[in-house]
Amino acid sequence: MDNAAALFIDGPVHEGHGDRAALVTPSGPVTYASLQRLTDRAAHGLRALGVEPEQRVAIRLPDGPAWAATFFGAIKLGAVAVPINTRLAPAALDTVLADCRPKVLVTQPTTDIDASAPAAPVRDFDSLVADAPSTPVRPEPMGPDAMAFWLYTSGTTGSPKAAVHCHRTLPACRHYGIDVLGVTSADRIFATSRLFFAYALGNALLIPLLARAATYLDPAWPDPAAVARVMSEFRPTLFFSVPTMYARLLRANLPSDAFASVRACVSAGERLPAEIYEAWRARFGVEILDGIGATETIFMVLSNRPGQSRPGSLGFPVPGTEARVLDADGRPVAVGEEGVLWVRTPSQAAQYWKRLDQSRRTFVGDWFRTGDVVRREPDGAHVHCGREDDFFKVAGQWVVPADVESVLLRHPGVLESGVVAAAEAGGLIKPFVFVVARDATAEPEALRADLQRFLEGALAPHQRPREIRIVAELPRTDTGKLQRYRLRQLVDGQ
User: Fold this and answer.
1) At what angle do helices 444-458 and 401-408 cross, to 10 degrees?
2) DSSP per residue over 354-411, as a string?
């Protein structure tokens, strides 16, 4: 197998697509030929710094051509690209750099990183390529099992770890991008997530480059106004986002034709409430294809199909992926029963870096234990029930936080909700509810009392909360995933 960078960067030019737009930015388009030249300059610059095969190149850049060029430039050299969350606090950044020990950290010219810090030598991208030639760089021959890039998990549990991906991972994007979504060179793709997350890396970079399509990359973090601007100017045909952003866009008073160019919207990251799906389709006339992937798989492993999306369903296994639903002892559960989703997919990571015990628990033979609890329907579709470490028992009965949250969203005064376990005096466990009010001026005590009355008739006794706390916002990762461990810390007064 050739170096994966050859397929994504050199391939389009060799096939005659050099003049086509690969990346579109607020500054204008970047053709496939220009991206190839910039990638080769980045590779030359990294080589001049002494970067060798298997050494890590950390990337802390905003989304754009420099990000893509550094990522593939490192891979061309046989090095390991390590995208870094640009919003990491200094202490968290130091932890990640100490973990991956990069040969160099590539940043933007204006950075808050001390270039003299011992964790990693720092180079801004402009200086990296300033004197670098654009002559072709021959991709370092790499086998399919050689490391290509690492991705750090998003931190929903408080302890990010690096999923190690090999060269064989990257071409596997065809199974979801082409076989499910049907992406072609005519498509224009826009994702609201950042490239250092698997969701955007897969859907906003790898899939469009493989299909020789165009993708929009914006260095700024998106808000509803920015999304509306891109929709109007770029006219994407595929839109990727997360449930939290879909909810924000529904509240943003966008015109009903704002997504008229889009043939399909895609959601992942956490459970998409059926209420959001229905409201979105009613408002914009476009279905949302819900699915599930992971940092460890890069791409979707379960997905709805265009024209066949069902609210509340994750859909079916992506071509090339096998799925099992197993109980705690590793036995298959019956159809209609809940169990943990295991998958075997060509895009899954090989291991976690320096996490032997976690690797052994998660990667078992050819299978990846996702930690997601699902229920398989009679027709083979899957319904997401939450994360296995989120469930808890009250009076001997399981409470599924996602089920309680779904009920809370039916109340007209609730914008968002999060449910965790809390111990009463004496140690008994009860649900603890955090709620973001739809009306920020609502009187908390009145809303709390109304919610208690509402839940009396909507939930079973073991599901009813011990306490309801009204908060301004819920703690989330930069991808929009709810950080339940931080809610539990709030319950405990930490």
Assistant:
1) 120
2) T-HHHHHHHEETTEEEEEEEEEE-TTS-EEEEEEGGG-EEETTEEE-HHHHHHHHTTS
What distance in Å separates the CA atoms of residue 351 and residue 372, rounded to the nearest whole number?
A: 18
Question: Hey, how many other C-beta atoms are within 10 angstroms of the C-beta on 305?
Answer: 16
Q: Residue 183 and residue 174: Cα distance in Å, rounded? A: 9
Segment 82-140, tens digit of pLDDT: 999 998 878 788 889 999 999 999 998 866 665 545 467 899 999 999 999 999 999 99
In angstroms, the CA 263 to CA 340 distance is 32
CATH topology of domain 4-382: Rossmann fold (3.40.50)
Which pTM does this prediction carry? 0.84
Tell me how far apart the 2 most distant CA atoms of the chain are, in Å: 71
Q: Which residues 6+ apart lie within 8 Å of 352 measured at CB?
A: 161, 162, 163, 164, 358, 359, 362
Residues of the chain with CATH 3.30.300.30: 391-491
Can you give the C-alpha Rg of the chain in angstroms?
A: 23
Fold classified for 391-491? GMP Synthetase; Chain A, domain 3 (3.30.300)
Closest by Cα among 122, 132, 105 to 43: 132
